[in-house]
Amino acid sequence: MSRQTTIPLRERNIILIGFMGAGKTTIGQLVAKKLYRDFIDVDAEIERRHGMSIPEMFAQKGEAYFRQVERELIVDLCTNTRLKILSLGGGAYLQEDVRRACLAHGIVFFLDLSWEHWKEERLPLIVDSRPVLKNKTLEEVEQLFFQRQSAYALHHSRVVLNELEAEQAAEQIVESIKWTWDVYEPNR
Q1: What are phi and psi of 108, to 5 degrees?
Q2: Which residue ranges in the chain fall short of pLDDT 50?
Q3: Nearest alpha carbon to residue 101 among 17, 35, 163
Q4: Residue 3 pLDDT
Q5: Which of 16, 112, 117, 139 could cross-link to 24 by cystine, CB 3.0-4.6 Å?
Q6: Across the chain, which distance is largest between two alpha carbons, in Å?
Q7: Residue 69's pLDDT is what?
Q8: 182 DSSP assignment
Q9: Measured between alpha carbons, how far apart are the two ends of the chain, in Å?
Q10: Alpha-helical runs (H) found in the chain
Q11: Which residues are 17's β-sheet partners?
């Protein structure tokens, strides 16, 4: 697919971004089911292709290597696939090449949570499984959370998850997508 080709809105990948543990994978799977699309969790795809977990990759090859692999995969998926639901790892969208490809070729949804909600509800569930959180104090994690907000602010649409169940968030995304299709590409 050439970069000059304009991808019709209805064929664009739907890309979910947000802080780690926000629910991108769970919500992405629900959206994919509702829209009859394939779902790709970028982290899981990296693990599958490289035959090792993300924590193992961080430990054996370093974060810089992981970020390069992540960037190459996401840019490839954005520019060479259509009709997918992509869930990006929490740090992926900080890379300018990733942001540029996602915004140009997909529809980007920011799954947003307040710091307080994330800290109380999500952190206990993921603290041991995320290499980026390893050996960090709560203050350092909070700083990371707020540092990433400026990158996440570059999106097409935002869903505030604080009071939503995953099913409700997925339905909100699907309704938003369908409305957008009807307004910008009617009668297709």
Answers
A1: -100, 125
A2: 1-4
A3: 17
A4: 47
A5: 16
A6: 54
A7: 97
A8: H
A9: 22
A10: 24-35, 42-50, 54-61, 63-80, 96-105, 115-117, 123-126, 138-152, 166-184
A11: 110
